[in-house]
Amino acid sequence: MTSVENIAIVGAGAMATHTLKVLLLSETPLRITVFEASEQAGCGMPYRAGTNADSMYCNAFSKEIPSITQPLVAWLHDQDDVFLERWDLERSDIDARVFYPRVMLGEYLQSEFDRLGELGRSGGHTIDVVTASKIVDVTPAGDHIVVSALTHNGEEQSPFTQVVLVTGHSWPSNPRIGSADLVSLAVHERHRSRTGANRSARFVAVRDRRHRRARAPRRGTSPWPDSAHQTARHAHRSGAVS
Ligand SMILES: Cc1cc2nc3c(=O)[nH]c(=O)nc-3n(C[C@H](O)[C@H](O)[C@H](O)COP(=O)(O)OP(=O)(O)OC[C@H]3O[C@@H](n4cnc5c(N)ncnc54)[C@H](O)[C@@H]3O)c2cc1C
Questions:
Q1: Ligand 1 in contact with 53 (CB < 6 A)?
Q2: Burial call 181-201: b when 16+ CB within 10 Å, e when fewer
């Protein structure tokens, strides 16, 4: 790397956070700007409230989720009782082999993204996070790269020496593809209409989790029945699970 790097990261999901983590190892102070199209930086699209219902689970258990500044379980232990109550989670239930809701994982990712930013700034790097800023063009121009962002103020252009594109998935504007319904919120609404509005999806989610744990053969092995676990892992590796 040359001495003055001015780096843009486009998209603020898990990939952006892990990119940032590696960039912050640089002994040379960096100027880093993270652009995020939505109002919320750090959690990424699949783990954002509004994209997923609270009852949708991450298909990787806690231990499989790479640590950022601390593992998910350590972060959960740091949360106050109000947070745990909001997720119907008891402190004694926090465990590295538990599957957690995607939106809860999003809160962890967002909090860790913020923390990483603070650590980077205190380490001498300049880090700007620009939300509600959708990158619409990236154009090489001589010794720099021009990034065009669509913001509330219209289109703005800025020059960078390096650009990292980590924009994740393209989500269709119409969530219905044939008979498939990609919006888990619709699942959530159907669930609520079947079970009654007073019974929260979170409660069901935690009950489900306890049920899975009750079926766990022994500590140190998968809490899933073999076939279900293998299917989930295979689908995850092949990118079929979302
Ligand atoms: C519905 C769904 C559920 C999933 N569930 C799981 C799971 O349970 N377990 C698992 O391991 N993986 C899951 N995945 C896979 C998932 O993609 C990864 O876990 C992870 O979210 C990928 O991170 P990312 O940073 O690449 O992308 P994302 O998390 O999608 O983040 C990309 C970010 O870029 C922003 N962005 C996009 N375009 C622009 C632009 N032009 N300008 C500025 N910002 C932009 C988006 O708003 C978003 O915040 C799921 C994927 C989907 C779609």
A1: no
A2: eebbbeebeeebeeeeeeeeb
The CATH number that applies at residue 60 is: 3.50.50.60
What pLDDT digit, counting tens, does each position of 103-156 carry? 999 999 999 999 999 999 999 999 999 999 999 999 999 999 999 999 999 999
Find all residues with CB under 8 Å of 154, minimum gap 6, and list them. Answer: none
Number of domains in the chain: 1
For 215-232, the pLDDT digits (tens) are: 333 333 333 333 333 433
Q: Is 45 in the pocket of ligand 1 (CB under 6 A)?
A: yes
- Ligand 1 centroid–CA 108 distance in Å is 15
Does the beta carbon of 12 sit less than 6 angstroms from any atom of ligand 1?
yes
Q: 43 is in which domain, residue-wise?
A: 6-237
In-domain check, residue 180: yes
In a domain, residue 1? The reply is no
Q: Which atom of ligand 1 is nearest to the CA of 56?
A: 8
Helix (H) or strand (E) holding 16: helix 14-23
CA 29 / ligand 1 centre spacing (Å): 28
DSSP letter for 48, please: S
pTM of the model as a whole: 0.79
The residue to mutate among 148, 169, 177, 185, having the most atoms of ligand 1 within 8 angstroms of its beta carbon, is 169
The lowest-confidence range among 29-33, 40-44, 81-85, 167-171 is 167-171
